[in-house]
Design goal:
The complex is a heterodimer of chains A (286) and B (292).
Chain A (H helix, E strand, L loop, with lengths): L8 H27 L18 H4 L13 H34 L5 H7 L8 H23 L10 H25 L4 H8 L4 H30 L2 H6 L6 H11 L4 H28 L1
Helix pairs in contact in A: 1-11, 3-6, 3-8, 3-10, 5-6, 6-8, 7-8, 8-11
Chain B lengths: L6 H34 L1 E5 L2 E4 L2 H8 L1 H35 L2 H12 L6 H12 L4 H8 L13 H25 L3 H9 L4 H29 L3 H7 L6 H11 L3 H26 L3 H7 L1
Antiparallel strand pairs in B: 1-2
Helix pairs in contact in B: 1-12, 2-3, 2-12, 3-4, 3-7, 3-9, 5-10, 7-9, 7-10, 8-9, 9-12, 11-12
The chains are: A mainly alpha (286), B mainly alpha (292).
Chain lengths: 286, 292
């Protein structure tokens, strides 16, 4: 089974066959989505009617509204981007402070806190969503009945979506950044202190640059997870619809291939992000 | 950072570092769940008037539809987890032990790429492939295997395919990392001593990979149980997934008390299975989560 052991030919062939079948299984749905973005037909279904770019560039005049003229889709991409930017900024910030807290500080209850930080990862997203929805609504009611305030951001809408996604993405950022801080060689900091550097200078010139790859990595992951989140968002969404929710709604109605076009756009965007991240981590090793 | 300097400064630093963590965990996790628990234990007797009761949980057990969907969701999730493990294991083994150097890294990377794409997009792909007017039925007709295109969506098997597909990544990563740490010499020694492939798998490989297997299974089970998109779109009205019941109660019917109770039941099931998995494999929660 391992290179140093003899393996019969049939086993090797079977293994290769399995891997090929597995890869086909993995990529078939994606390739299908991509292919039908270019099909010259009103629905993403066979047979093939020829190549068209209508589902990207079509406007009302052509009778097919393509991705770049579908203002509802474009707005939802912007909405998702805005939410993801907030979630990323919050998650990386809190992830970094948490890393310092867990790796550097000593305080009673530290062990319990470190377990509590993992809990958001084992709560189903739907439940994170409804618990935050119910709690925010209670707070809003309280503010209304006690002070007569109408607190808009506690009602279903983008602020709650940001908060809901952040509640578990922060845990992932914390894990990633803590893991790197744990491997940090503290003699570097001590050397800088001995040479007269201030605490802020050491943090700024030594520790944070060391953490940067983990911070960038968790930022990319946070952005993608937020952009693609469905479960938590579904429960907290208000009038402004993020992309995944809009796509879901249209998929249930039987949509035109404009959804394939937007999917292809997402695939290319996430592939670029993924590959650039992998390249970074490869360079780091070398 | 916090072990030097005067006491007040250390206190201040600790406070500044603790604040975001505590705000996050208490405002967004602990308090909302306590609140949800309170909501689930009340009953509306008149408009804006509530009493404490177990009525919501009673409804769950009395109404066969609800607990049947609950049990169904649990069973299908267990099956999906097992299938994911079986499908992913040979690939993880190939990456960790058979392929070498660059080709192993490349294969691993290729296997991970689809999971950078949104689940919505992947589900759209399955819908185009499987629905009655889709690619697969058309292909079956063309090959002469069936007379008219069959509807491949809206079956339990379809839901399973979709769930396994979205879960593979979360199984592959912990499996590969746990198999990579297995010393090849152990396997060679076992072979030299005359062990069969199956014996090696059972007595050496699986015990060594147990932490990775547990981590993968726990994460996959949890995500499957909590999934909404895949069962809903691939299963249609026949999906009968428990998260849909929570959504219906909370958003469609605005019956938050019932929805909260359903949420807690799902959370209990999820936590219970995680705990069982940890007990069965004798592992600690923190270690497993770090691995996944």
């Amino acid at each position: 089974m391992i290179p140093s052991l003899p393996r019969p030919v049939w086993l090797r062939a079977l293994n290769t066959l399995y891997i090929v079948a597995f890869l086909i299984f993995l990529f078939l749905p994606l390739l299908t989505v991509a292919a039908f973005a270019f099909n010259d037909a009103p629905y993403p279904a066979p047979p093939w009617h020829g190549f068209t770019l209508d589902w990207f560039f079509g406007d009302e005049a052509s009778g097919r509204i393509g991705l770049f003229h579908d203002s509802e889709l474009l707005d939802s991409i912007l909405t998702s981007g805005l939410v993801a930017a907030w979630v990323t900024a919050l998650s990386v910030t809190v992830g970094t402070t948490n890393a310092f807290l867990m790796e550097r500080a000593r305080f009673p209850g530290r062990q319990a806190l470190s377990v509590l930080m993992l809990v958001p990862l084992v709560i189903p997203g739907v439940i994170l969503g409804i618990s935050i929805l119910a709690f925010a609504s209670r707070l809003a009611e309280f503010a209304d009945s006690t002070f007569g305030w109408d607190v808009e951001f506690l009602r279903p809408g983008l602020p709650l979506v940001v908060v809901g996604q952040f509640s578990y993405i922060a845990a992932i950022a914390t894990l990633t950044i803590s893991a790197r801080l744990k491997r940090f060689d503290r003699t570097l900091e001590e050397a800088a202190f001995n040479l007269g550097a201030t605490r802020v200078a050491v943090l700024w010139h030594i520790t944070l640059p060391y953490l940067r790859p983990a911070m960038i990595g968790s930022a990319v992951i946070a952005f993608l997870m937020s952009f693609e989140n469905f479960n938590t968002t579904l429960m907290l969404v208000g009038a402004d619809t993020p992309l995944t929710i809009l796509m879901y709604g249209r998929m249930r109605e039987g949509a035109t291939p404009v959804l394939n076009a937007v999917s292809l756009f997402l695939m290319v965007a996430s592939a670029i992000l993924a590959l650039s991240l992998m390249r970074r981590s490869e360079n780091k090793v070398e | 950072m916090t072990d030097a300097g005067p006491l007040w400064m250390r206190r201040l630093l600790l406070g500044l570092l603790l604040a975001p963590a505590l705000l996050w965990l208490f405002l967004l996790i602990v308090l909302p769940h306590l609140d949800l628990a309170l909501v689930s234990f009340r009953e509306r007797v008149a408009p804006r008037e509530y009493v404490t009761s177990l009525a919501q949980y009673r409804t769950f057990f009395i109404e066969p539809l609800y607990w049947q969907i609950f049990v169904r969701t649990a069973i299908l999730s267990v099956i999906a987890t097992a299938v994911t493990l079986v499908v992913a294991f040979p690939v993880a083994w190939t990456i960790a032990k058979i392929a070498r150097g660059r080709s192993a890294a490349l294969l691993f990377m290729v296997c991970l790429i689809p999971f950078w794409v949104s689940e919505t997009v992947r589900t759209l792909g399955w819908m185009i492939l499987l629905r009655e007017s889709g690619v697969m039925p058309a292909l079956l007709v063309k090959l002469g295997l069936v007379a008219s295109p069959p509807e491949l969506l809206y079956h339990d098997a379809t839901i399973l395919v979709g769930l396994v597909y979205t879960s593979l990544l979360f199984m592959m990563v912990p499996l590969v990392s746990s198999l990579e740490s297995l010393d090849n010499a152990l396997i060679e020694a076992a072979y030299d001593l005359g062990a069969s492939g199956f014996t090696v798998l059972r007595t050496i490989v699986i015990p060594h990979a147990a932490p990775g297997i547990t981590a993968g299974c726990i994460v996959v089970f949890m995500l499957t149980l909590g999934n909404y998109l895949t069962p809903n779109l691939l299963g249609g009205t026949s999906s009968q997934w428990f998260t849909e019941q929570i959504y219906n109660q909370f958003i469609t019917r605005f019956n938050w008390e019932q929805g909260a109770a359903f949420g807690f039941l799902l959370l209990a099931l999820s936590t219970g299975m995680v705990w069982l998995g940890l007990k069965a494999s004798g592992q600690r929660f923190a270690d497993v989560m770090q691995r996944a």
